[in-house]
Design brief:
- The longest helix has 18 residues, at 193-210.
- Strands 7-8-9-4-10-11 form a 6-stranded mixed β-sheet, with helices on both faces. Strands 1, 2, 3, 5 and 6 form a 5-stranded antiparallel β-sheet that branches.
- Strand 10 (230-235) and strand 11 (238-244) form a beta hairpin.
- The chain has helices at residues 56-63, 86-94, 111-116, 135-147, 163-176, 193-210, 221-227, 250-260, 264-273, 291-298, 305-310; strands at 10-11, 14-27, 30-41, 45-49, 71-76, 79-80, 96-100, 181-185, 213-218, 230-235, 238-244.
- The protein is globular, with a radius of gyration of 19 Å.
- It has 312 residues and is of the alpha/beta class.
- The chain binds adenosine-5'-triphosphate (ATP) and magnesium ion (MG).
- The site of adenosine-5'-triphosphate has 11 residues, from strand 3 and helix 1.
């Protein structure tokens, strides 16, 4: 697998915190990504746009080491991600917050406990209950809850919150890591339009305040254009669009997708899916015992047998 020279990590626009070069990922006969390249500078807010199955989640998961490339290079915060193991991988993941469509909260735990699990990347050993976290961690968690407007709900069970509130908790949990990069995989796909725009605005405000770099996958062109600095369009695992949002119209974006569409069915899917409003959908809270456990173990290709089979 080719590496990226350290000298290629900077550009006149700033420091490149994410560099993906010619990334190909195959799952058996399915090519999820095909020679995809992407460079993200510190502080940029990027949307990955594309139809279902275009490779958005797969690309995001490579940035956090949750997938291993079939070919190509992935460099994040100066590290060749596929080469990282053990403590070095955990350290990188501690600097990369991840927000998911389904929130992935632990339903029976309080909001505060859920946020505190975000600190588990930095502290050793299991933590059972509020008492096992330091006062400093609790104060930090409460400050993050205040930032996302949920201080009053700190001691409420997470599964009693609305979808929008649960996503706020997930954002506070990601902030608990004090991340440099925030990855968000369709963070508003399960929310109604009003909650969606509130969550997107919150992510952007926090990112601007803290100088966070954000890479967020979305389906909706309108939302992406109004929110991101830059959009990167994927189609069948290939990057077919990479443009600043300033000065580009929805019609131009759709025109590019229209140009690369190869079938009438695909054109129809583009028209309906990329321009559809976000649809509400009830979301059950998962019963996972620990979010970091599920992220580190269940999702980790380095510890899962099926994923090991995918490695070259
Ligand atoms: N673990 C896996 N095993 C097999 N195939 C996979 C796996 N993960 C992704 N794929 C396939 O790779 C392709 C890209 O999937 P991916 O989830 O990245 O798309 P996406 O753009 O995130 O779609 P969506 O908008 O529906 O979330 C799809 O064809 C998908 O079925
Ligand atoms: Mg996806």
């Amino acid at each position: 697998m080719p590496g990226l020279a350290a000298s290629s990590t900077t550009s006149p626009g700033g420091e490149a915190v994410i560099e993906v070069r010619n990334l190909t990922k195959r799952f058996g006969d399915t090519t999820a990504l095909h020679e995809a390249s992407l460079t993200v500078q510190a502080g940029e807010i990027i949307v990955l746009l594309g139809l279902s199955g275009s490779g958005k989640s797969t690309l995001l998961r490579h940035l956090d080491g949750l997938e291993l490339p079939t070919d190509g290079a992935v460099r994040v915060l100066g590290h060749e991600v596929p080469a990282l193991r053990g403590r070095a991988l955990r350290a990188l993941r501690g600097r990369v917050g991840f927000v998911f469509q389904q929130f992935e909260l632990v339903g029976p735990l309080t909001v505060l406990e859920n946020v505190l699990t975000g600190a588990l990347f930095r502290i050793r050993g299991p933590r059972l209950g509020l008492w096992s976290y330091s006062g400093g961690h609790k104060l930090t968690a409460l400050a993050h809850l205040d930032r996302v407007g949920l201080l009053a709900q700190a001691y409420q069970r997470a599964d009693t919150l609305s979808g929008g509130q649960q996503q706020r908790v997930a954002i506070a949990r990601a902030l608990m890591q004090n991340p440099s990069i925030l990855l968000a995989d369709e963070p508003v796909a399960s929310l109604d339009p009003e909650s969606s725009s509130q969550i997107m605005a919150l992510i952007k405000d926090i990112a601007r305040d803290s100088g966070l770099t954000v890479v967020c996958s979305l389906h909706q062109v309108d939302l992406a254009l109004g929110w991101a600095d830059r959009i990167v369009g994927l189609r069948h695992g290939e990057v077919v669009l990479d443009t600043p949002t300033a000065g580009i119209s929805k019609a131009q974006v759709m025109e590019i997708y229209g140009r690369v569409a190869t079938t009438t069915a695909e054109l129809g899917a583009i028209a309906t899916e990329l321009t559809a409003p976000v649809s509400p959908e009830p979301v059950p809270a998962p019963a996972a015992s620990s979010w970091t456990e599920s992220r580190d173990a269940a999702l980790d290709p380095r510890t899962s047998a099926s994923a090991r089979d995918n490695r070259r």
